[in-house]
UniProtKB/TrEMBL annotation:
This is Catalase. Its EC number is 1.11.1.6. It comes from Polysphondylium violaceum. Belongs to the catalase family. Residues 1-20 are annotated as: Disordered. Pfam families: Catalase, Catalase-rel, Catalase_C. The lineage of its organism: Eukaryota, Amoebozoa, Evosea, Eumycetozoa, Dictyostelia. Residues 25-413 form the Catalase core domain.
Amino acid sequence: MTKNNNNAKDEQLNKVTIGPSDVLSRNTGVGVKDDINSLKSYSRGGTLLEDVFMIEKINHFDHERIPERIVHARGTGARGYFQATKDISHLSKASIFKVGKKTPLFTRISTVQGPRGSTDCCRDVRGFATKFYTDEGNWDLVGNNFPVFFVQDAISFPDFVHAVKMEPNTEMPTAASAHDTLWDFVSLKPETVNTVMWLMSDRAIPISLAHIQGFGVHTYRLINEKGDSTFVKFHWRPVDSGTCSFAWDECQKIAGKDTDYNRRRLHEDIENGDYPTWDLCLQILDDETLKKFDFDHLDPTKIVPEELASLTPIGRMVLDRNPDNFFCETEQVAFCVSHIIPGIDFSNDPLLQGRIFSYLDTQMSRLGGPNFNELPINKPVCPFSNNQRDGMHRHTINNTKANYFPNSIDDGKPKEDPKGFVSFPEKVEGLKARVRSETFNDHFSQATQFWNSMAEYEKRHIVSAFTFELSKVGRKYIRERVVNEILANIDDTLCDQVAKGLGIKPQKKKHAQKIPQKPSPALSQSNLLPNNIRARRVAILVDEHDSSVSDKNIKAFAQLLANEKARSKVISSSLASFKSIEGTEIVPDEPMVGSPSIFFDAVYVPSASQELLNNGDAVHYILEAYKHCKVIAFTGPSAATAALLKHLKLKSDAGIITGETPADVFDNFKLSLKNHRIWDREKDIQSIPA
């Protein structure tokens, strides 16, 4: 009886309640009666060292920061789930792919080069990493919003990062690739060229994080129950939002107005129920498909065009919950390429092989040792057990007597899992050497294919991006080398236009033997637009001195937008309320100065009036939206609208929509907004001030 009572007492003692309390306490659980005044020898005396409450509080504060990620430091994340939709048991035995199965996950999207305090809106690659909490262990799919990377071998990865980061003598520029060291590296290393084309394209300045594609970059293996292997590439494809981008001028202005723009927009979308959604797709690279390639699928600087291997959707990811605590979740989440599960395996991609080590090594440094997987955000949801012990920040309290394998003391537990992970038994032979496969040697063909696949407006943007970036390079010989030895091997028009913008006479020292490749429509964002305006943001622009503003029109247009799951805000010069033409009170949501047109996807002007023309901020608002090729709708008497457009010198196009009522303009407004921007307008905006 005594023994049983003792066991009951022990069980009761072990039932520790971990959670928030309404009572302020130390980390040891001792209550704190006064958290405002430190302990002093008398009212004006010195603070005493024995004030353990203050010492603990300040000590913890002094150690709140952990080392930021060397790359991908600036990011944001969200929780959600993945649900398998297609049976691929013939390809993979992974249980996550069983049709209908839901798996919780955490996704983090980030910029690459900037530090934690840098802007969201810069020209950069976006990291796209997802941690799946499967019932077989955690799987981390760690990729980017580009399907290619800058270098072919992991041994060059530190060199690339050093080159793209701030220059070591000045630690400038922050979160920007427009400087000498990056372009020196690029001009001397042609394998970077294909990814540089993506970096200079609109893909590098996405309009929101919900509007990006994601790519696993590398070739992976899927393994089925029979042990058969099939090479695949992983793609994340937006379901509703499509893929589209900022204008570069707009992007730079947003970086100054709101450094948190992308993370704020993702957070607000989720809070509003506009859950970002992606399909996980496979490019299945079986033996017959691989025979079609004139490039090496293990080369991480190459894509597999969808014309050669189409995308097969196998499941859907929905991000439906924001983190409760940014640091504990988004900052402490530890993605490791080495985290895979049975049914998924690595390929011999030399960059992937290096990442298998690098990510694990990085997390140990950032999170204080080998126990980072015990943090709640990183902890598996399935049972797990091993003989790893101790180390910094150990959370698990092991009560077993043996900490080795094999053992007989604990009945041999934990035992080996007969269904555990097994590497694919690839046959390997050859000479050990520091070499690069000859199949990795063509660096320019796919860069040319990317250029040839672009719409005309996208080509204009690429030329402008190269011109802008290289104009920031101080050393003339680097600018000339990029033009004459890199761009000349991609396309003559690209080379000539960039050279003209930089005042360089192109020499066109062509030395590359390009393999002709047809354009790939899937590379152009003009072919990736959504067929909806879901989660788009529209500014309803009014002037508080305008007595002709119709509250009825504002509410009608806002409702039409809401019916399409788009969002709107009433923007005025101030937050002061005013009377509508109907006599009702209009209360603006935000002022123009705090919510400029660059924060919105389109603008609606419910009253084209003289009062609006007299408001310089409102005029600037409309002209800036026009300059950035956005859709602008006007309602009101036709004569007043015509006078407004004439005064502003706005040329009529598919994005300038006029009518008497919201119903008159909405269908055309929606159609044009589905197409994102009126990019042809760029040819007419040189004389428009902003």
